[in-house]
Structure formats: structure tokens, C-alpha cells
Write a structure and sequence with these properties.
With about 375 residues, this protein is of the alpha/beta class. The chain contains 12 helices and 11 strands. Helix content is about 55%, strand content about 15%.
Length: about 375
């Protein structure tokens, strides 16, 4: 998940948050200021409750960040690159580039998150006891201790993308010797928990607890969807694990001058090729961007006056790769950005381009080969 807002770097790891966290911040602050704090510490002014609640919500985000940072630091120590951390509606996501090298490494990376939450909760509870003379601050800290314990327990539910799902996957990986089989087995068990949550949500809904029922069912649906995505992703990684980018890229690549008008390009270049994406260059030959036919359609009546450079995606925003890079690793590294097309460079020379269609073609071939291979 790409962050909506970037906050900076911590220990060299980029931190950001998704817009959905704004909703969570408002919900936590409102719940604390109007419900939890007035009930636990009555007799104070509304402003005191709201300030303490806002600080509590910020501290909650810091706890989430500690949980994800633990994942990221252990992953990096285990040789897995970390692209960044994104906080969002359901907690946080550590964006790892690549996979753990062993079942033990995956278990360690997954398990350190809940352990960190439990440790943070214990620290918050200790500070709450030490600040008992300040009831409002102590109550916020006690709430943080409870939330961190709940966060640790919830993350131990054996369903993807929660840490419990990854711990279960690492166990089956260790038993079977195959990460793909480990993920598949863990996903099957995770589906049972997801369906159970959906059923509980439906029961709550029909017994009158509408909000709780919808929320529990939604979380169950999310776990069900995430598990299916993890299983599919694991299959794709296994099929493409030995395929280099050079086997999937389209080559050679046709580049065009960026000073051509859109009309000139459509009249003189497009009819000669079957490509949908074209890198553009300045007079010196230096690449300046990429144009796609689907985006040029929106130019409309300005085709005669608009130049390709005016419509191109800047070259700095176009993902790149190299011929020897592992295709599965590239897909994991770029995610949805592959839809913008990927330029493949051999040192400084442009040697190919990759689109989702290219990946689908190679995947189809690998699936056919895997299906035709003898099972025994």
C-alpha cells in the first residue's frame, strides 16, 4: 500500500500514512474524549478531555509505528530489504522487498511485532502506575496498555495479512519445506477464521448490534480477501521466481522525438507499430518521458498544438529495471506501479519495456509448463 502522506525517515526507513488513518484518529479522539475519560476520571473540563484524548491518539499511532518498525528492523537484519512503512485503517504495513530466506526468519519477522506491542503495553502500564497522582494521564496510559495488548492478540489471529497468519505459514513452511505450500495451508485455516468473523458479524447485526456487526463482518471480509491475495501472490512468485526480466520484456523499444505534436505522432508513428507505450527523447537523445496511447486520447481537439513532451509522464516517475533482475522480485518491488510500464536499462542503454500484458504472457506460459510437468 502506497502512503498518501509521507512523514520522513526513521532508521533509514521511509514512514508514511494512508488517508484512512485520519478517520481512525478522529474516532479514537472522540471515543476517549466523550466516553472513556469522562467515565473514568469525572469532574474535569471538556477541553482537558479533548487534549488528553488527542495526545492519546497520537501515542496510539506511535505504538503502531513501534510495532511495524520492529518488523522492519528484524526483516532488514535478516537480509530482506524494506521499502517503507505505511500506517493505515487496520494498523500498519511494512513493505518488504523480497522474501525471508527461511521459515525461521519469517517466524522471527512476524513474531517480533506482537512481542513489541506487549512490551510497549507493559511499559505504558508501568508508567500509568507511576503517575497515579495524575489521574487523567494515568488513565490514558492505562488505555494505551490495554490497546497494545489487544493489538498483540488480534495480530496473532492465524489469518493473513496478520502476524498470526505469517507465523502459521512459517510453521507449515518448516514442516513441508516449501514456502508456497506453507502459505497455501495457512490461507486455508485463515479462511475459517474469516468466515467465523463474518458469521459473528451477521449474528450481531440481526440481534440489534448494527455497528459492531457491520465492523466485525467487514474485518472478516478483509481477512478473507487478503488471504486470497496472499495465496495468489505466493503462486505467482513461485512460478516467476527463476524468470529474469529479460525473458518478459518487449524489445526493441521504439522511441520518438518529444517535440512532435500529438497529431504528427498519431499520423506518422502509431500506424507503423503495435505498441501502446512509447518513450520520448529530446534532440540530444536523452529520454524525457513516456507517452501512452490511452492517455493521448484525452487530448481531444488540441492534438495539433500539443506536443508529446506536454503529455508525457516525466522520466523520473517511470519505474525502471535491469535485464538480470528477477521478475518476481521486480513485481513485488513495484506493485501497482508496473501499470505505468517499466523501462529496462542495461547500464545506460534502454533495451526493453515491460507492461502487465508482458507479465501475464510469461505467467501463462509458466502455468502451462507447471501444469504439464509430471507430478511424481
Amino acid at each position: 500500500m502506497a502512503p498518501s502522506i509521507r512523514l520522513g525517515k526513521l532508521f533509514g526507513i521511509e514512514i508514511g500514512f494512508n488517508w484512512s488513518l485520519i478517520f481512525v484518529f478522529a474516532l479514537i479522539t472522540w471515543t476517549l474524549a466523550t466516553g472513556v475519560l469522562p467515565q473514568d476520571v469525572p469532574g474535569l473540563g471538556a477541553m482537558e478531555y479533548w487534549v488528553a484524548a488527542a495526545l492519546g491518539a497520537v501515542a496510539f499511532y506511535a505504538c503502531l509505528l513501534a510495532h511495524e518498525m520492529a518488523h522492519a528492523l528484524v526483516a532488514r537484519r535478516s537480509g530482506v530489504k524494506v521499502a517503507g512503512i505505511t500506517l493505515w485503517l487496520f494498523g500498519g504495513v511494512s513493505q518488504l522487498e523480497g522474501e525471508p530466506k527461511s521459515a525461521g526468519s519469517e517466524a522471527l519477522i512476524a513474531g517480533v511485532g506482537p512481542l513489541t506491542s506487549l512490551a510497549v503495553g507493559a511499559i505504558a502500564l508501568g508508567i500509568a502506575a507511576a503517575t497515579a497522582a495524575y489521574p487523567l494521564a494515568s488513565d490514558v496510559l492505562t488505555w494505551l496498555a490495554f490497546v497494545n495488548a489487544a493489538l498483540a492478540l488480534f495480530n496473532l489471529v492465524p489469518a493473513f495479512p496478520l502476524d498470526g497468519g505469517r507465523l502459521l505459514s512459517s510453521f507449515f513452511w518448516w514442516r513441508s519445506g516449501s514456502r508456497r505450500r506453507g502459505v497455501h495451508s495457512a490461507v486455508r485455516i485463515g479462511r475459517l477464521f474469516a468466515y467465523l468473523m463474518i458469521a459473528i458479524g451477521a449474528l450481531e447485526l440481526f440481534t440489534g448490534a448494527v455497528v459492531d456487526g457491520i465492523w466485525i463482518a467487514f474485518v472478516g471480509w478483509f481477512l478473507l480477501s487478503a488471504g486470497s491475495s496472499e495465496d495468489a501472490g505466493s503462486t505467482v512468485k513461485a512460478l516467476l521466481s527463476s524468470v529474469p526480466v529479460s525473458a518478459a520484456m518487449t524489445a526493441p523499444v521504439v522511441t520518438v522525438p518529444d517535440w512532435l505534436t500529438v497529431q504528427q505522432f498519431v499520423d506518422s508513428v502509431v500506424p507503423q507499430h503495435s505498441f501502446s507505450t512509447y518513450p520520448v527523447h529530446e534532440p540530444s537523445g536523452k529520454l524525457t518521458g513516456v507517452v501512452r496511447l490511452s492517455e493521448l486520447v484525452r487530448v481531444g481537439s488540441d492534438r495539433a498544438s500539443k506536443h508529446l513532451i506536454d503529455c508525457a509522464r516525466p522520466i523520473a516517475e517511470v519505474p525502471t529495471s535491469r535485464p538480470s533482475e528477477n521478475l518476481a522480485a521486480m513485481i513485488e518491488r513495484l506493485g501497482a506501479a508496473i501499470d505505468r510500464r517499466v523501462l529496462v536499462f542495461d547500464q545506460e542503454a534502454l533495451v526493453g519495456i515491460i507492461s502487465p500484458v508482458d507479465v501475464a504472457r510469461v505467467l501463462s506460459v509458466r502455468q502451462t509448463i507447471a501444469g504439464a510437468a509430471p507430478s511424481g
